[in-house]
């Protein structure tokens, strides 16, 4: 059954993109969770939706733009939204979390307006909202792969600075790290990964792939690097399992990927609970032996 699955080009494209997204989404998600900015991914995904809606409207309204790939405007809107969010965070220094609902509301507002102007929902928009096994074209695959490589290289080059800013921003600033510059770079990377992931997971569920594998990894990892590695493994399991399930059950892959991620989280929580009980029982036995 698996062999027959990969006989189609669009399926191969989808799984290649899934493998790539399964790495970069939890990788960046690890920094997002540590920074307590988990809702930021939701806000930028709604801005991406606005870009998709504008693109679909333009392609319907203006003939020369009929072949416009919505992915490009999705990238543009997400990047612009990330820069604006970082600016708002500096404006509301004592209420930085306000930047997230402001950007999210703006993105949703534009999305609703342009969706209604484009005569409502259609198949293309539905695939962007919830993901699709058959929606990834060859050009999409190369675009997303190129962005993923760029994100991965930047993370490797700036890992030390991003690590310090995530765990101790004050110390990072004292050490001479230009926090605003690196925060801006980080926001743009998040925006690019969100826009890249929407083809597979869907705009409304993309933040789950950036946070749920990390939430599961935190339960069993020892240290930040181990958290990243385990989160990537969990992300790949969820993506590949979700895509295969979605194909054979004729479901939107976003939902299957998210549910698998939730199941992984539940299993790690059960494992941690059993492990703690085992450790406590061992210590109790050791204390009993010592007292004797």
UniProtKB/TrEMBL annotation:
The keyword Transport applies. Keywords: Membrane, Transmembrane, Transmembrane helix, Transport. The lineage of its organism: Bacteria, Bacillati, Bacillota, Bacilli, Bacillales. Belongs to the ABC-3 integral membrane protein family. It comes from the Bacteria. GO terms for biological process: response to zinc ion; transmembrane transport. It is a multi-pass membrane protein. InterPro entries: ABC_BtuC-like, ABC_TroCD. This is Zinc ABC transporter permease. It is found in: Cell membrane; Membrane. Its main location: membrane.
């Amino acid at each position: 059954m698996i062999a027959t699955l990969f006989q189609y080009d669009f399926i191969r494209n989808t799984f290649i993109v899934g493998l790539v997204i399964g790495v970069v989404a939890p990788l960046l998600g690890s920094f997002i969770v540590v920074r307590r900015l988990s809702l930021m991914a939701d806000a930028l995904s709604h801005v991406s939706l606005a870009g998709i809606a504008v693109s679909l409207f333009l392609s319907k309204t203006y003939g020369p733009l009929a072949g416009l790939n919505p992915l490009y405007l999705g990238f543009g809107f997400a990047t612009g939204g990330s820069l604006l969010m970082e600016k708002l965070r500096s404006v509301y220094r004592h209420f930085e979390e306000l930047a997230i609902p402001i950007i999210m509301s703006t993105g949703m507002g534009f999305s609703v307006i342009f969706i209604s102007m484009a005569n409502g929902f259609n198949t293309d928009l539905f695939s962007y909202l919830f993901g699709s096994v058959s929606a990834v074209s060859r050009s999409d695959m190369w675009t997303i792969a190129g962005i993923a490589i760029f994100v991965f290289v930047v993370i490797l080059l700036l890992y030390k600075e991003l690590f310090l800013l995530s765990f101790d921003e004050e110390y990072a600033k004292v050490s001479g790290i230009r926090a605003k510059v690196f925060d801006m770079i980080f926001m743009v990377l998040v925006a690019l990964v969100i826009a890249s992931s929407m083809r597979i997971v869907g705009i409304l569920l993309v933040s789950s792939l950036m946070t749920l594998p990390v939430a599961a990894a935190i339960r069993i990892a020892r240290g930040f690097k181990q958290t990243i590695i385990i989160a990537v493994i969990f992300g790949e399991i969820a993506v590949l399992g979700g895509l295969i399930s979605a194909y054979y059950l004729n479901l939107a892959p976003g939902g299957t990927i998210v549910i698998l991620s939730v199941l992984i989280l539940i299993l790690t929580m059960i494992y941690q609970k059993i492990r703690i009980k085992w450790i406590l029982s061992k210590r109790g036995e050791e204390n009993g032996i010592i007292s004797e």
